[in-house]
């Protein structure tokens, strides 16, 4: 019914796959941005979120199907890293989404993190669409910018078409070896049993219309129940944002947030709800739009008092007037416990909480963490590790850096920003995190 359609939320789509298959570039192509080239070493190191309004999707798909029924308000797309050391972030991303795009490089076929991603998606019963990317790399390919892929393939020489078919069959065979049926999307007669493949190029934009339309149509057809409103929100990152104090970046998976809402477990009131402009990444600094209220799904920056106590990876709970406050608090505490249970407070060392785990891929400064010191004193030589499946030992503290202002603040017992460099460069490969940005003020408390 019409009423049902109006209340559909935006589906959340996670982009997964092996490193350098073109996940970020595909999103750049849809957004008309260049996030990928700004990444350290061209490697994605954090989860990103971008909202694509339905008007943009309509524009991109009109040549393919002008009268397509698009009932969702848009798509929230989550970019994930493909590098092998970021399993945690892939798992977090895949846990958030309703539907996924599994990106495969047509020139390489299935690779280790393709298979890892595939298994994460299968474990959660998440439907996905395969983007068979980099078709423009086929020898002799003549690019037809932004064309639906069938039109584009028809324009290619017989040799190119044969080479495409050969590589496609190889990929289908590799999926078969993983126990999955796949087929070119426009030949797929049974989307419930066979996964669809959409050939794409993130450089020429070919196949992007097909990918967007299939994503929206498939979500609408299969997920009406999932896409109807409930309230759910997950914290991605806690950080100081210039001009806004400590903020939290969250993904509102379902439901609605309002300015002034009371949120738990931090027990604070939402001062402002900020989002990047549509088609922009939440990760990228820029100006923000203010909202009185926001409907799911969205990537949001929240400002308010006391947010430095939020923990990345936990849920955020909104206390409504008719809610039992104690019950909401109980839910929030359960979440917090499951995260803090990772932390071993026995033995020697300090107990710290990172705003998010950060590292840079840089041989000189292997590990840099922004931390809140919760107990103990940080010294050169203090052993440090981060909670993962096991504890990644990042060695001992090699240096602690802060600026002069921080010294004054620390003397007065105020919070300061610290950067910590570890001594164990090999371990950076096993850590997850993101590029450390010098403008990011990290809040710490020295006890
Ligand atoms: P990670 O996030 O690090 O896992 O990589 P990614 O999957 O996001 O890949 P990324 O977007 O960083 O692209 C990797 C490289 O492949 C870049 O140099 C891109 O310019 C290039 N690339 C991506 N897509 C295409 C494509 O469709 N065609 C061609 N020719 N190059 C592409
Ligand atoms: Na990359
Ligand atoms: Mg990327």
Automatic annotation (TrEMBL):
Record protein name field: Eukaryotic translation initiation factor 5B
Origin superkingdom: Eukaryota
Family: Belongs to the TRAFAC class translation factor GTPase superfamily. Classic translation factor GTPase family. IF-2 subfamily.
Entry's transmembrane regions: none
Annotated Tr-type G domain residues: 8-224
Species name: Populus deltoides (Eastern poplar)
From-to range in the entire protein, with total length: 675 to 1121 of 1154
């Amino acid at each position: 019914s019409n009423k049902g359609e109006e209340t559909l939320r935006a589906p959340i789509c996670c982009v997964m796959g092996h490193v350098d298959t073109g996940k970020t570039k595909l999103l750049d192509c849809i957004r008309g941005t260049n996030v990928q080239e700004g990444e350290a070493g061209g490697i994605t190191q954090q989860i990103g979120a971008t909202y694509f309004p339905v008007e943009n999707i309509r524009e991109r798909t009109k040549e393919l199907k002008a009268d397509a029924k698009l009932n969702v308000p848009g798509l929230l797309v989550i970019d994930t890293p493909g590098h092998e050391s970021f399993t945690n972030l892939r798992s977090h991303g895949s846990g958030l989404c309703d539907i996924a795009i599994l990106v495969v490089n047509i020139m390489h076929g299935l690779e280790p993190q393709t298979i890892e991603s595939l298994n994460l998606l299968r474990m959660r019963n998440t439907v996905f669409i395969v983007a068979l990317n980099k078709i423009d790399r086929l020898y002799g390919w003549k690019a037809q910018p932004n064309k639906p892929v069938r039109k584009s393939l028809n324009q290619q020489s017989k040799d190119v078409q044969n080479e495409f078919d050969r590589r496609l069959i190889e990929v289908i065979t590799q999926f078969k070896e993983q126990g999955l049926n796949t087929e070119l999307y426009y030949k797929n007669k049974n989307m419930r049993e066979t996964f669809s493949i959409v050939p794409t190029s993130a450089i020429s934009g070919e196949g992007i219309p097909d990918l967007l339309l299939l994503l929206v149509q498939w979500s609408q057809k299969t997920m009406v129940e999932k896409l109807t409103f409930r309230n759910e929100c997950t914290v991605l990152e806690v950080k100081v944002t210039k001009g806004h104090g400590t903020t939290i970046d969250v993904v509102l998976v379902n439901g609605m947030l309002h300015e002034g809402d009371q949120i738990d477990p931090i027990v604070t009131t939402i001062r402002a709800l900020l989002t990047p402009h549509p088609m922009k990444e939440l990760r990228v600094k820029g100006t923000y739009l203010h909202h009185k209220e926001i409907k799911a799904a969205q990537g949001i920056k929240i400002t308010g008092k006391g947010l430095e106590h939020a923990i990345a990876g936990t849920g955020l709970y909104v206390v409504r007037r008719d809610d039992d406050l104690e019950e909401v608090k109980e839910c929030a505490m359960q979440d917090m416990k499951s995260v803090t249970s990772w932390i071993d407070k026995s033995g020697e060392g300090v107990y710290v909480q990172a705003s998010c785990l950060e590292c840079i891929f840089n041989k000189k400064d292997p590990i840099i963490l922004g931390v809140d010191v919760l107990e103990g004193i940080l010294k050169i030589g203090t052993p440090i590790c981060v909670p993962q499946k096991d504890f990644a030992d990042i060695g001992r503290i090699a240096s602690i850096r802060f600026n002069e202002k921080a010294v004054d603040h620390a003397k007065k017992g105020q919070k300061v920003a610290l950067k910590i460099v570890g001594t164990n460069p090999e371990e950076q490969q096993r850590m997850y995190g993101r590029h450390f940005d010098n403008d990011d003020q990290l809040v710490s408390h020295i006890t």
